[in-house]
Design goal:
Length: about 325
């Protein structure tokens, strides 16, 4: 991009947004400001960790801003003074008030990790896997004041196989989103591309994940528990308790069949666990505070009571 390069403000926080920011930089767009969530204390030591987008911006010596809110006059004036042509938003984590959306000359474009209007909200990647969707994708939309309700510029789809995990899908959708954004951005900035309203049918909401969603309930079908494991790792994780021991399941396979034992019963030396429908066999597990290990490795140092019921199935 030359001297006429549009002035772009970028807003994003997690790994998903890094690929998109990098794609803009590689295409030589002028990023005049990066907005991201402030560094947060993480882990057992509560070490303050910068966001992935902050680290990327620092590597490229870009101006970085960390407002706790965008609702103050000071924050809005700071944004308006940037004199932006467009804002690009990808999993930023703050609600953008009208004053922020209206400040760039051509508004704000969002890279959203679902096929809108399905999975509006905070956790579209995990919800798509958890609900067993056959496909998902990315949507480039022009933002308005609603929750992911803006008009659509472009959608790109991807199939969801039975082995898809959140981490894998995150990587695939970030690359797809970056490609889609670069496809539409030039025409949009030139006024040649006009967004269309979202369909009024098929609206669903991807609510924020909660810690309690990680509990594995053997009174549910094994197919659902398998999706739960693939969707909710690395956070909040998926686990069951045996006495005082909490055991996380990181990977598992469904074992088809009808079983006479009640849900929650271990039926073989592979820790195959009876569910409401079929059974679930963990293949990668982890005790709290220990490294992940295969089931065979785990059983060398851990013994379950025979015919163990983890808890009374509901």
């Amino acid at each position: 991009m030359g001297s006429s390069s549009p002035r772009i403000g970028f807003m994003g926080t997690p790994e998903f947004a890094v690929e998109i920011l990098n794609s803009l930089l590689k295409a030589h767009y002028s990023i005049v400001a990066v907005y991201t969530q402030p560094p947060r204390p993480l882990g057992r030591g509560y070490k303050v960790i910068p966001s992935p987008v902050q680290r990327c911006a620092e590597e490229h010596h870009l101006p970085i801003f960390f407002p706790e809110t965008l609702n103050t006059e000071k924050a809005q004036k700071q944004w308006q003074d940037l004199n932006l042509d467009v804002a690009i938003v990808a999993a930023y984590g703050l609600i953008l008030p009208k004053a922020i959306l209206d400040a760039p000359h051509k508004g704000a474009l969002n890279v959203h990790a679902s096929l809108l209007p399905r999975w509006r909200g905070a956790a579209p990647i995990q919800r798509a896997i958890l609900e067993g969707d056959q496909e998902t994708g990315v949507t480039i939309m022009k933002m308005d004041e609603g929750l992911d309700t803006g008009d659509i510029l472009l959608m790109k789809k991807i199939a969801l196989g039975k082995k898809m995990t959140t981490l894998l899908l995150l990587k695939k959708l970030s690359k797809l989103g970056a490609k889609a954004l670069l496809e539409v951005l030039p025409s949009y900035l030139e006024g040649k591309l006009h967004p269309v309203p979202q369909p009024k049918e098929g609206i669903t909401y991807a609510k924020k994940l909660e810690k309690k969603e990680g509990v594995l309930n053997w009174a549910l079908p094994a197919s659902f528990l398998n999706r739960q494991i693939r969707a909710l790792n690395p956070w909040p994780g998926t686990w069951f308790d045996v006495g005082k021991d909490r055991i996380k399941i990181l990977q598992a396979v469904v074992i088809p069949g009808s079983f006479s034992q009640p849900p929650g019963t271990i039926i073989d030396k592979h820790i195959t666990i009876v569910c409401k429908e079929d059974a679930l066999r963990p293949t990668l597990v982890q005790k709290i505070g220990k490294a992940p290990m295969t089931t065979d490795e785990f059983l060398r140092g851990y013994k379950f009571p025979s015919n163990q019921l983890f808890y009374d199935a509901v």
